[in-house]
Amino acid sequence: MQTYDVVVIGAGAMGSAAARALAAAGREVLVLEQYELGHDRGGSHGGTRLFRLAINDEAELLRAARSRELWHELESETGVQMLDLVGGVDHGIGEQQVRESAALLERHGVQYDLLTPEAATERWPGMRFDGAVLYQPGSGRALAEQALTAIRESARALGVEFRAQCAATAVRVVGDGVEVETAAGVVRAGQVVVTAGPWTGQVLAGALEVPAISASQEQPRFFAPLDPAAEWPIFVDRRAATPAYGLFEEGHGVKVGLHATGPVISLDQRDFQVEPGRDAALIAYVREWFPGLDVTRSEAISCLYDNTERGDFVIDRRGPISVAAGFHGEGFKFVPLVARYLTELVTGSGSVPDVFRL
Ligand SMILES: Cc1cc2nc3c(=O)[nH]c(=O)nc-3n(C[C@H](O)[C@H](O)[C@H](O)COP(=O)(O)OP(=O)(O)OC[C@H]3O[C@@H](n4cnc5c(N)ncnc54)[C@H](O)[C@@H]3O)c2cc1C
């Protein structure tokens, strides 16, 4: 029976980054992934993600700021660009919120500009604005695919073993360690880190009670810009009950999505199909607010959010089992920070914010 210091279950963004960080901390690490590395069935595929500092949550702002530092560390360690800070806008927010957000950003020395709708429209003619616009030059795009490829390569160079197409079928605590069952046999380890996204509950059944994590099948779209040379910030529009978000991605166009509006699905009934009603709402939104996008030329994306009822991430350790899941479509910006939290939990050198605890 093979033995490792740590087995990581799930090679999405969180598992891959955690494996690298654990190997850098001197641990012998095996990563099990049920599909091929880089597959498109979870929550981590695709070229880009928004990276931004929160404008209405101090703790989250500070976490994102810390994560940006760690992203830059990863960039210098791997020599690969992972963040592209093109700047970002928040709009569709009331006057009071604008004032509170400006005060929050000021309190933490975060650069920002308050733009009139006219000034913003002049700068980004592909978008329409009807109120104050909060612009952050320090936000932008996480180059997701490029970053994850570099993180996995660097992890391998640090000795991490990735075993793709090898699902973990059960986790058992045995003595002061764990056994992980796979179709290819049982693996023993001192500890296990479960970063299995919406599958987390299934993986830990019988081994550790975790909050219910549901999967929603999100369906943003890439829209073709009418002017290929137009500039685009990353954007969040908060006028509707759930924010609209998006950014530009080379080769695809401008991604626009209605956050956390996808249908809740059971994982074995995933159909990768867009739900027509929600799709029509997205297209109507783009038609109204993006004069620079061609709603007749677009491509749908299918991607999973892992959601907890309490709406917070779940990051904690019990005995030899650590878990990180429940990122509800907002986890990518925090990848190196979550990897740091998991490494501190495994090595006993630190803890996680109470809000994430089991
Ligand atoms: C459409 C969309 C847009 C997003 N936009 C943003 C954004 O702009 N900014 C941002 O910060 N975040 C964003 N996110 C969220 C972010 O991408 C996710 O939070 C993050 O990628 C989750 O990573 P993960 O590793 O936890 O999950 P996943 O990528 O889902 O990884 C879990 C892995 O575990 C594997 N697995 C499951 N069960 C087993 C098993 N039994 N054995 C072995 N392997 C198993 C799965 O196959 C999968 O590879 C977005 C997400 C989506 C879907």
Main beta sheet, described?
8 strands, mixed
Q: List the quaternary state of the chains.
A: single chain
Q: Classify the helix fraction into a percent range.
A: 25-40%
SS strand fraction: 25-35%
Q: Would you report the number of β strands?
A: 22
Q: Looking at the structure, what is the overall shape?
A: globular
Classify the fold: give the CATH topology of the largest domain. FAD/NAD(P)-binding domain
Cofactors and ligands present?
Answer: flavin-adenine dinucleotide
Rg, nearest Å: 21 Å
Series of secondary-structure elements, N-terminal to C-terminal:
EHEEHEEHEHEEHEEEEHEEEEEEHEEEEH
CATH homologous superfamily caption of the largest domain:
FAD/NAD(P)-binding domain
Label the structural class: alpha+beta
Q: Compute the number of helices.
A: 8
Number of domains: 2
- Assign the CATH architecture of the largest domain: 3-Layer(bba) Sandwich
Q: Specify the CATH class of the largest domain.
A: Alpha Beta
Uncertain parts: none
Average the pLDDT over all residues and give the rounded result. 96
